[in-house]
Specification:
Layout: H1 10-24, E1 29-34, E2 42-49, E3 54-60, H2 66-76, E4 83-85, E5 93-98, E6 103-104, H3 113-129, E7 131-136, H4 138-155, H5 167-181, E8 185-189, E9 198-200, E10 208-211, E11 218-221, H6 229-233, E12 235-237, E13 240-242, H7 245-259, H8 268-284, H9 294-311
Antiparallel strand pairs: 1-2, 2-3, 3-5, 4-5, 6-9, 7-8, 8-11, 9-10, 12-13
Helix pairs in contact: 3-7, 4-5, 5-8, 8-9
Pfam family, one: APH
Protein name: Aminoglycoside phosphotransferase domain-containing protein
Domain Aminoglycoside phosphotransferase: 148-223
Length: 316
């Protein structure tokens, strides 16, 4: 009988991980232990085999699209570990992947501003490489993005306008700008580009050696995930964003320079529009979550304003 990973006993989780680890590699296991970092809807183990190699085993409630992960690996190389489905016992799904040696990026905490600017520039370059040539974003804008914006304006904003009067203006502007995004290429999109999923090495400056957790990858117009630079460059304290221009602006600018390095200057405004629309639809007003809670809404307008203030001058 299968269970949700959060309902597993410690013994069941360990048994499941052992079965999966043995299926993933046919070497004797020396050590199997819980990873110090855990994500949502999954339990992750690190496996140390007797041949001195390490792997990651992940027990999951949901399926990983291994085809899209393979595409990401083909585009970006070893920074995206290939993922393989392995034998699941107590859980619905189990996956194995290569262990990446390094540490999670902790901007503004562990790394210096100069290092964070360098890493942000690397990240912008990585996202830029994920463009899929030959196809525009017209269909996705016409049949998904515009209808979703219209639906939120019609069904959700009326109950929010008293407390957040500027939301409607922002939504209407983004709806009007959405046609601009049609000119951008479709892109293999990692939907959760946060520092927790960025692995850096110990070199100076640190180099990105891993971009992990591609399980939610999808195809979207270019830069619709790039709004997450705001969540990287600005510290959030007790639910409130606390931007410091002396650190946030240099990090955000370094990211933009590499993200748009090969973009036609006439399309840079569309890139910013895609970032803002992406933040609205895939972060704050995610379609699976209904009306956002106040802890999210209290930052929405400030984040949109910040993206505009930082990047609009760079579009000229």
């Amino acid at each position: 009988m299968t269970k949700l990973v959060e309902d597993l006993t410690g013994k069941e989780a360990l048994e499941s991980a052992l079965i999966a680890a043995r299926d993933y590699r046919k070497h004797k296991i020396r050590v199997l232990e819980l990873n110090e970092n855990q994500g949502c809807s999954s339990t992750t183990f690190v496996v140390d085999y007797e041949d001195q190699t390490k792997s990651i085993i992940q027990l999951r409630n949901d399926r990983i699209d291994t085809i899209l992960v393979s595409l990401a690996h083909g585009i970006l190389g070893d920074i995206v570990p290939l993922v393989r489905a392995v034998k699941a016992s107590h859980t619905m799904f189990a996956y194995g992947m290569r262990f990446i040696q390094g540490s999670r990026w902790e901007p503004l905490i562990i790394t210096s501003l100069k290092e964070d600017m360098n890493i942000a520039g690397q990240l912008g370059s990585i996202l830029a490489k994920c463009r899929l040539g030959g196809t525009t974003s017209e269909a996705i804008i016409n049949y998904t993005i515009v209808p979703r914006l219209e639906s939120i304006i019609r069904d959700q904003l009326p109950s929010l306008e008293d407390k957040h009067p500027r939301l409607r203006g922002w939504f209407e502007r983004l709806l009007a700008r959405a046609p601009n995004v049609k000119r951008l290429p479709l892109t293999l999109t990692h939907i959760d580009v946060n520092p927790f999923n960025v692995i850096v090495d110990e070199s100076s400056p640190p180099q990105i050696v891993g971009l992990i957790d591609w399980q939610g990858a999808t195809i979207l117009p270019f830069a619709m995930n790039a709004y997450q630079i705001r969540l990287i460059a600005v510290l959030n304290r007790q639910g409130i964003d606390c931007p410091d221009s002396t650190t946030a602006t240099p990090i955000a600018t370094a990211f933009w320079q590499t993200l748009t390095q090969d973009i036609d200057p006439e399309l840079k405004g569309a890139v910013l529009d895609a970032m803002s629309i992406g933040m609205i639809l895939f972060c704050d007003f995610h379609e699976d979550l209904g009306i956002p809670p106040e802890r999210i809404l209290q930052n929405t307008v400030a984040r949109l304003d910040w993206l505009e203030e930082i990047y609009r001058p760079l579009c000229k």
